[in-house]
Amino acid sequence: MPPTGGFAVKTCARIGVASLIAVLAGCTGSGASDDVPTATPEPSATQQPTAAPSEESAAEPTPSFTQDGSTRVLTYGTVEVRATPEDEGVRTAVTVSNDTDEEATYQLRVSIGDGEDWVAHKSFWFQSVAPGATAEDTALLGGSHRGDDVPERPEIHIDRFERIG
Question: What are 120's strand-pairing partners?
């Protein structure tokens, strides 16, 4: 399980090369010992300044989990996902706030699981959310028809979150 309590946002490795360059740049210099091999990155037109990954990482929201009775709550930036176990499945409510000055459409894919083998997925679309407005949708994920026990403490994963327009 990830250290954030079961949260995963699957994104492309945007800062991998820049991070590697930053690490390699930090390993070189006059303080290097003769016993430790050093590497100097080759200059290139695409090389990013070493501060860029930190700035990009700082812009990413931090996931926050809370418990409200039997409901597990994930807050991630302007998104809130509430997962409540019920006899029929996991009642999943997704709320998105538009904190921009323009109308926006949001696409999310949420997975709810038990951390072992029970996983249910749902895509949510929030179209034409006005500036400063909040949109919400609720769905029942999983269910007794699957033959699995509904998790008592569901894990919440945001597989995809995209602002369109």
Answer: 112
3-state secondary structure of 23: helix
CA distance 3 to 6: 7
Residue 90 has pLDDT above 70, yes or no: yes
- 107's CB contacts (< 8 A; 6+ apart) are 123, 124, 125, 126, 160, 161, 162, 164
Q: Which amino acid is at 159?
A: D
Do residues 50 and 22 lie in contact, with contact meaning Cβ atoms separated by under 8 Å? Answer: yes
Provide the pLDDT confidence category of residue 98 given band limits of 50, 70 and 90.
Answer: very high
**In 12-147, which ranges are continuous DSSP H helix?**
16-26, 52-59
Q: What is the pTM for the complete model shown? A: 0.64
